[in-house]
């Protein structure tokens, strides 16, 4: 069989069938049976300049692939069916060996290549910076206008989080948490969940609205004073927006009348919004009226078991802060309005901290100064001199005994078949405060630095400026993105593409530095070399290296995510 004078196949988009890529040829009719056998769907086109078409499943193609005449054209007059078969088999072989992860629609127009957009279909999408809701206020005067008086900008974390669009003020002591912050907070909650559940914690969710009756039963309705945010419903019943949930959780456990010692201990925890009517909110997320907290409440069958649980939770807190890479100190503390028999705080030493700490460099003793006699300047354990420092409280633990279980009659049946009161403990972590405190401790004056596990995005890719000499490296960076997605599935959703190609690489690198992505990868002049080398900024170590595509993947394979 003879096929026409020439065969020229080109790649274009099938708008009606987005799951396929359409191949068109002109000046000849190809052997439809042959194409059908090779996986094509055959049809006829009734448009001048094209006499037939074939569709290839999109999974065999990659976005933005160029198909040249040199690859696909044969100019031999009187081409035979066997030669046509060889051309088509070669074409199909080329496509089927290309990366299978590229399942997006091909885009044939637009000044920005398709790889810089979200893909409408397919499992892997390219996240692009231009679509992020992130109202940046990079000038100092803009930040000051957000918070009113300049004197209210009293710490580094508050200023930086406002500047780069992590938070936005809603009212005094209350902030909108914007997408980057929410991502970081969700990661922190996952780490907390891992640590709490590793010691037997069970997650619950209790109402923020708490009845005044519960708080009056413990006398804390009056003891808490103006810190409680109080309200009445239309029937005149009083409530508060809970700053903590000792009353609520103890009443919940007390309502279970058939508890046995065999079921204990219970370690019940939640991560919810808390409310406190601060007289003077300040320091951004470090001291506000509305905040997120992890609060755990434990119920044990004996004093010995309760102390064991107390030690377990303290150990989990130490593990948490070690995983985050945050320098902390565990100090003895006052029980305050929560009460109980023993209390410890977990503090991050930093100058902006509101707590005064005493630490002995000679032994393991450390305490909040409010627990010590101010005239005593020697360590009560080794009699050595104490060093004073300031800290931000990010965690607090209390051994409560039967303070609350006796009021609400939270009982269980003991080994002798007799009713006994549960021994309790309560344990708090300031979730939003940990985020702000970490930024306060780790960041420079101008640039945010995150704990590695909490960075909102692990990688930022910066392509060349549109119209620059390096613009040809844009497609190479897109290929790198897809290679990372294929080789490192654990980084799915962690790679962000800065597609603002109207800006220079330098301007976008400056923004990336401020936002604190752990890794920034730039397609610059050396990306056009053979082989391509990408400029990699390791923000947390201040290193800059040039790596091939394989080197980048090897580096990123060490990144830990939650």
TrEMBL record:
This is Probable proline--tRNA ligase, mitochondrial. GO terms for biological process: prolyl-tRNA aminoacylation. Coiled coil: none annotated. It holds the Pfam family HGTP_anticodon. Belongs to the class-II aminoacyl-tRNA synthetase family. It is found in: Mitochondrion matrix. Mitochondrial aminoacyl-tRNA synthetase that catalyzes the specific attachment of the proline amino acid (aa) to the homologous transfer RNA (tRNA), further participating in protein synthesis. The reaction occurs in a two steps: proline is first activated by ATP to form Pro-AMP and then transferred to the acceptor end of tRNA(Pro). It comes from the Eukaryota. Its EC number is 6.1.1.15. The gene is PARS2. The lineage of its organism: Eukaryota, Metazoa, Chordata, Craniata, Vertebrata. GO terms for molecular function: ATP binding; proline-tRNA ligase activity. It comes from Orycteropus afer afer. GO terms for cellular component: mitochondrial matrix. Its main location: mitochondrion. The keyword Transcription does not apply. It catalyses: tRNA(Pro) + L-proline + ATP = L-prolyl-tRNA(Pro) + AMP + diphosphate. InterPro entries: aa-tRNA-synt_IIb (IPR002314), aa-tRNA-synth_II (IPR006195), aa-tRNA-synth_II/BPL/LPL (IPR045864), Anticodon-bd (IPR004154), Anticodon-bd_dom_sf (IPR036621), Pro-tRNA-ligase_IIa (IPR002316), Pro-tRNA_synthetase (IPR050062), ProRS_core_prok (IPR033730). Keywords: Aminoacyl-tRNA synthetase, ATP-binding, Ligase, Mitochondrion, Nucleotide-binding, Protein biosynthesis, Transit peptide. The keyword Nucleotide-binding applies.
